[in-house]
Amino acid sequence: YRWESNAGGTFTVVPDEGGERMTRGTKITLHMKEDQQEYLEERRLKDLVKKHSEFIGFPIELLIEKTQDKEVSDSDEEDEKKDEDKKDEDKTDDGDEGEVTEEKEDEKPKTKSVDKTIWDWTLVNGNKPIWTRKSAEVEDDEYNQFYKSFSKDSEDPIARVHFTAEGEVTFKSILFIPKTSPVDFN
């Protein structure tokens, strides 16, 4: 199925006829407006994904362009050396049968550094959600940051309980108690 929206508050879900078949996962294709090109920058994308998916347990990967230095032998210079060696051999073969020529040993081939562009998938949200981790592994600051991210509260919670419930269904949870009750709370 294909989900489409023009960011106007409505969306449609239609069967995907002829699109790329995916056996698993989700593919998101965004069409950017001309004045919003800053959102295509690697740093900006990473920041957005980290901010809005920090506590999602599914991996989110980004195709990143990397430049890698690679040592390559300088073939032009090697070809010139081979030509010179052949000329030297021709000169010694002309009539000096008793003369012995020494070959140069351990000549290191000259190399030059070439930048190579590689495209690689990089995991952007590597943190496990805090409710799936042991409570001893989670810092107070992480709890407070998590609470503020979903509650939109500017203050830290007054208390919290991080627990695992086991039974027919097992789940892990964190219960936060805010310092003040919400304004619209009856």
What is the compact description of this entry?
The chain has about 190 residues and is an alpha+beta fold.
DSSP strand content: 25-35%
- How many DSSP H or I helices? 3
Number of strands: 6
Shape: extended
Low-confidence stretches: 91-95
| Mean pLDDT score | 79
C-alpha-based Rg, rounded: 32 Å
Helix content: 10-25%
Structural class: alpha+beta
- Amino- and carboxy-terminal Cα gap: 41 Å
Output the helix-strand order: EEHEHEHEE
| Largest sheet report | 2 strands, antiparallel
What strand order characterises the main sheet? 1-2
Explain this structure to me?
- The protein has helices spanning 42-52, 75-92, 140-151, and strands spanning 2-5, 11-14, 61-73, 111-123, 159-165, 171-177.
- The longest helix is centred in the middle third of the chain and has 18 residues, at 75-92.
- The strands form three sheets. Strands 1-2 form a two-stranded antiparallel sheet. Strands 3-4 form a two-stranded antiparallel sheet.
- Strand 5 and strand 6 (171-177) form a beta hairpin.
- 22% of the residues lie in helices and 26% in strands.
- The protein is built from three helices and six strands, in the order E-E-H-E-H-E-H-E-E.
- By secondary structure, the protein is α+β, with helices and mostly antiparallel strands.
